[in-house]
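[audit] Reproducing an earlier prediction to check determinism. Same input, same settings, fresh worker. If the tokens differ from the archived copy the diff job will pick it up downstream; this log only records the rerun itself.
[audit] input (985 residues):
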Amino acid sequence: MDNGEIEGSDDNEFASSSSSKGVGLGVGRKYRPVVAHDTDRAVLEMSSLDPSSFPKKIKVSTQPNLGSDSTERSLPTHVGANGSQRESKLELFGFDSLVNILGLKSMTGEQIPAPSSPRDGEDVSTTLERPKITGVKSGTMMGVFVPCLQNILGIIYYIRFSWIVGMGGIGESLLLVAFCGACTFLTSISLSAIATNGAMKGGGPYYLIGRALGPEVGVSIGLCFFLGNAVAGALYVLGAVETFLKAVPSAGIFRETLTNVNATGVAEPIPSPSLHDLQVYGIVVTIIICFIVFGGVKMINRVAPAFLIPVLLSIFCIFIGIAAAKKDHPASGITGLSLQTFKDNWSSDYQRTNSAGIPDPAGKTDWNYNALVGLFFPAVTGIMAGSNRSASLKDTQRSIPIGTLAATLTTSGLYIVSVLLFGALATREKLLTDRLLTATVAWPFPLIVYVGIILSTLGAALQSMTGAPRLLAAIANDDILPVLNYFKVADGSEPHIATLFTAFICIGCVIIGNLDLITPTVTMFFLLCYTGVNLSCFLLDLLDAPSWRPRWKFHHWSLSLIGASLCIVIMFLISWSFTVVSLALASLIYYYVSIKGKAGDWGDGFKSAYFQLALRSLRSLGANQVHPKNWYPIPLVFCRPWGKLPENVPCHPKLADFANCMKKKGRGMSIFVSILDGDYYECAEDAKAACKQLSTYIDYKRCEGVAEIVVAPNMSDGFRGIVQTMGLGNLKPNIVVMRYPEIWRRENLIEIPATFVGIINDCIVANKAVVIVKGLDEWPNEYQRQYGTIDLYWIVRDGGLMLLLSQLLLTKESFESCKIQVFCIAEEDSDAEELKADVKKFLYDLRMQAEVFVVSMKTWDVHVEGGPQQDESVEAFTGAQRRISSYLLGMKEKAEREKTPLMADGKAVVVNEQQVEKFLYTTLKLNSTILRYSRMAAVVLVSLPPPPVNHPAYFYMEYMDLLVENVPRLLMVRGYRRDVVTLFT
């Protein structure tokens, strides 16, 4: 049936005319826009959708023919852009794009405007832009290994590590190093696996976590990790400045403070730098580092060795000094490498200390193994320093695994060796009281260690100030949070604004000047990032999607799970309060991103998990019928209306509102289907654009569901294909929802009855329930509250579908003030009171509250039952009789003229005029009863009678028109061969 001629004519239909290209109603047809008072604002707003957002046809140029013997073959030819005939590609693959460099580049994310299947006669041309000139790229050594080494080798090794050995003993110190090192080592393995699973853009761990766990998780952890790196920069700067002021006390501008300690019974004052000196020097150092970072990767690579080489030299001098140390040389308490000292220091000796870390029975700090974990763990962080600069690496898949693991193993080995050496070098008293034992034993003089401390912390601060802005810029470039748009940078450019913002955070933390307050915060953010990396690898490895093919083979999901568990355990060991705060901050960012952020589909692991979960759920549902307790309505919403819609409105807005009314608290799925008339080969691109438009519209209307566009020669064939094939297993649609064709007689559209009846018959054959909405334009939206009753005219057994629909309507705000009335239509000789009692008991067992009425269908007599309602019904009845008689007379005259059997809708019919009268009387009585009892009802539900066999479709439409006459809002419901409600728990 061609719907191109269907138009509304009354005030409730779509009024003024316009010419446009429609979706779901054919191509190149005329439509009437909806008058503003006839529809909701969705129509007017969706009419302004930008059509440029939909796919467009692209012309491309054909590749020259491949093969040397092309001149000897008779191959198809077509005309190129210049008008000359050119031989096509390989004949067997004439419509496919052969593998070429442009196609390969398009797989890496570059936008190449080339269609997948150009048709004959189209000119295929592509242009490849010159690759953008990017900045200097770093290799494994300078890009990953050196930054990681600089971040890991820091101030804790120089001034706290020997103290940790004295407090925890050699045994527990080895356990501590192994515990923390195992955490970072397992995280490095997970990082290596994800980083080698494809090309990696800027952002380091944020990029990896976001692509594995989704944009919300990626942004929340990424921002926390950015804050951790920024605050860590302040931590390193303060450590460098404090060491400098201790080495050169005269450099202090303000008066320094003295701390009295009591270690061995003799009080000794220890000078402590002034807080104002720390603030002033810290701000100056931060600004200098900021200028170095502004110089770009080239400048950083030049400066980094200048910071690292003295550090390595100072460690070398420490080891030489340890080897050369003798008893009480170079200071008292030094025993040299002694087996006895090793044995004495093997066990732990946890004591109370004062604020300077010196043992004091009256001290306020009580130490244990958990506290040592919190103190030492920052010494092993920094494994992400190389991946933070992923945008500046030549080969991320090679550099990140090798550089990160090499730095992790190198530093872990250094720490283990240092535990053994420090434990055998000095007495426990010396280990606990001399915080700069490394400087004391360094050869040839302590100044080398001071220089090493200052340069190691400055190097770590440089790497933090380098990685943090790039991390923030990568988050901004993904365009998830609009508030971060200020930090966007072009490819190959330096993130100057992000660097200034990072420096501002560093300066703020430097002004605070409290290392003990900063250290736990940094540690939590780092551990949160490590947990995200491990969970990402765990999820990807466990799901093992086809795209999961990392080059790094030495990984397993169990290792990643152990790594994530270690990170969480360490977080709670350090401080449960800081752990809760960091998790709360990440959760707040996650919530903010999920509300304010833009949707992004990165093919994350959760999508793969959802896919596999859906497959497993689908298999577990099986092919058997779903139990009534587990039954959900899955409506197939037939978007193509019996009327007209404006351009860019692919579905009647009230159909979307009604589909939402069929779900309890939004649970369930709807399938919105539209049929595009035409040939699939010609209309494939139009169907894709229409599907995208329909999907956008149902998202706008907040309908949980999917959109489908089917191309078919006509509506009947298209619907028949849909009802047979749509859905999978027990997730097939079970209710067909469509609008009642109220305009068919007004517009004299004689094609509609055959199509309408065919659709209902197809639903009956396919065992689908049917819900037909009459008065769709008056259906309320979610803000229009209704009062009165929801009246059910329960005539035939429908498995409880009508009752269930009425209950679902009550769950919506627009109908929650209504009450349900059930009218049971009984035959004249039935026991009305017994039927009423049975229905009440049935509704009670179903936990449904409704008032029950029993109406006996007596012989209708206009003289006995007079009144205005009957006057309207009589007029409609006589009109239907007159039209049916005229139609039947025309059929008979045509059959006699053509000397053929009585035909209608292309098939022979047998008309029993007495049966036609009976059907008319029955529908008339139903209509009269509805008008008598339910004229003021909010909505009326009535059983949908099936189309009578061998009756023309025109007759059935007359029956239906008589049934719905003068009823403003009506749902005609037909169930299917199964129950959807149950009495049992």
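[audit] rerun output stored. Observation attached for the diff report: Confidence is low (pLDDT under 50) at residues 1-89, 103-134, 262-266, 859-869.
[audit] end
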